[in-house]
């Protein structure tokens, strides 16, 4: 259980931050860049949840799933902040596991099954909620790239990277589901603005 009595500790004033095992690393290390991008992605998903709830579109189930994903992303950040090559979860170690990736795939398949097939690339927009989901998708893709970069230097749980890869797909399909409830996707028209 986390208990924070003080928000600032001054321990990071030297440009380092603590990892789960108590070791310290530079705040600009690739591992920390990835963790920061995951945190930003989580925040953008929070914006999408607010936009969904304000939209009036009957998608409370999607907002609830996105909040579950936000929790997963906190776990994923803790996973990335845990040095070592043993990616098995334990009582004291949070790790992303295959069932979390599988859950995203199941949801993608379920939502996609209710959508018409794509006949064009789509533009990131439509309703405010769908636009927020597209921003979240793009931010998750950046977090994944940062995670892949960090994995070249330190051990990163491969399932954490798989989760981020699948999450960007999930957010794409979720944005399409939102737009379908409000009239459809915004289609790309190649060369239309020449």
Give a short overview.
This protein has about 190 residues and is mainly alpha-helical. It contains 5 helices and 4 strands.
- Rg from alpha-carbon coordinates: 18 Å
- Look at the helices and sheets and give the structural class: mainly alpha
| Distance between the first and last residues' Cα | 57 Å
- H-E order: EEHHHEHHE
Work out the strand percent. 5-15%
Number of strands: 4
- Count of separate DSSP helical elements: 5
Q: What order do the strands of the largest sheet run in, or round the barrel if closed?
A: 1-2
Q: State the major sheet.
A: 2 strands, antiparallel
Low-confidence runs of at least 5 consecutive residues = none
Describe the overall structure.
- The protein is mainly α and 194 residues long.
- Helices cover 57% and strands 5% of the residues.
- It has helices spanning 30-55, 60-80, 98-112, 128-151, 158-181, and strands at residues 16-18, 24-26, 122-123, 186-187.
- The strands form two sheets. Strands 1-2 form a two-stranded antiparallel ribbon. It has a two-stranded antiparallel ribbon with strand order 3-4.
- The longest helix has 26 residues, at 30-55.
- The mean pLDDT is 91.
How do the helices and strands line up, and which of them pair or pack?
Layout: E1 16-18, E2 24-26, H1 30-55, H2 60-80, H3 98-112, E3 122-123, H4 128-151, H5 158-181, E4 186-187
Antiparallel strand pairs: 1-2, 3-4
Helix pairs in contact: 1-2, 1-4, 3-5, 4-5
């Amino acid at each position: 259980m986390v208990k924070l009595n003080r928000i600032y500790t001054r321990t990071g004033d030297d440009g380092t931050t603590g990892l789960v095992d108590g070791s310290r690393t530079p705040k600009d290390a690739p591992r920390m860049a990835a963790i920061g991008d995951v945190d930003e992605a989580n925040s953008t998903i929070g914006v999408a949840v607010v936009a969904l709830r304000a939209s009036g579109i009957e998608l409370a189930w999607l907002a609830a799933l996105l909040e579950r994903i936000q929790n997963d992303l906190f776990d994923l950040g803790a996973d990335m902040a845990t040095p070592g090559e043993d990616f098995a979860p334990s009582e004291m170690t949070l790790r992303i596991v295959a069932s979390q990736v599988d859950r995203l795939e199941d949801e993608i398949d379920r939502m996609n099954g209710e959508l018409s097939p794509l006949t064009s690339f789509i533009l990131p927009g439509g309703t405010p909620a769908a636009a927020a989901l597209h921003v979240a998708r793009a931010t998750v893709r950046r977090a994944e790239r940062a995670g892949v970069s960090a994995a070249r230097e330190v051990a990163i749980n491969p399932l954490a990277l798989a989760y981020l890869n699948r999450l960007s797909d999930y957010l794409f399909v979720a944005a399409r589901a939102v737009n379908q409830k409000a009239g459809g996707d915004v289609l790309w028209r190649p060369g239309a603005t020449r």
